[in-house]
Queue: 3 jobs
Job 1
Amino acid sequence: MLMKEELEDGTLMNTAQVAHMLGLSRQAVQGLLRAGTLVSAKGAQHNINLFARTQVEKLAQERAASKAMRAAIAARRQHTRLRRIATMREKLARLEGRAQTA
């Protein structure tokens, strides 16, 4: 059977394999399918969806890049917040110094 051979050689992946590769639940993979983010390589036969490994790997790379971008943005925001706090502390220290000399 062709589908069995494709599953065994890794060309196609079932929902559980996709979920494991993406770090998601099987229900989340089904959600990606419904949303059109993932496309079933073979029509759903007997309620089993099969996905092309290349498609899943590409999605995994996109998710990793997106996660890295979000982390970089969060780090930049944190840096900005800390810089503002340091600036405010410096201004407060100067104001306190003026108040003590007055």
Note: The CA atoms of residues 45 and 72 lie 42 Å apart.
Job 2
Amino acid sequence: MKYLLNLLLLLLLTTTSSAATGELPLVWIVSTGGTIAERINPKTGAAVPAVSAADLIKAVPELAKVARIKIFPLCNIDSSHMTVEKLKSYFVYDIN
């Protein structure tokens, strides 16, 4: 959880608010599932998805005071299974 808080703080510090509208900055959290959102299944010993990005954001209610948070669930895989090829497969570019 400490890693998540540090990451969120970094994102908030690098995002600026719109002075013209007086709105809080908009911060997008890209969720990939994985290590932060997993728990160990006691029966199998395997890591399994346990919480969503929304659950993690709800665990830090103070975020709503400093930013408008939006979540983009990109995938839900263990970080040890993430490869560059797999990450690229989540992005589709149409240049025509």
Note: The chain has one domain: 2-89.
Job 3
Amino acid sequence: MTDLGLITDLRDDRLPGEPLLQKVMSRGKIVSRMPSLPEIRKRFLDEFTKLDERYRAIEGRGPFFPVSFSPRLRSLQAKTVRGVRHREFEESRSKAGDPILHGLDMESDELIQVFGFL
């Protein structure tokens, strides 16, 4: 967490702050000691008291704790969305009688640019 909130990132991103997740399993094997229930409780209380009071409410509608994505994660997300849209577009193009594509004589890259998929 930072003063600005939580930044969700990729495993190998090196951002300032302390990682919240710790590796406990690898390839189906436990790789670290499991904390006891009193240790878990203590850690929760220690971390919970660090939260600004406005974010401590368990019920209600906010304000919500700010969460953002690292630049690399946003880039990967955009790349994945483009790939899925491209595949869906190619699949729809191959179907006979597609009203959007019927009669168009363009290459797929041109169509993707025209319809805003990239």
Note: The two ends are 33 Å apart (CA to CA).
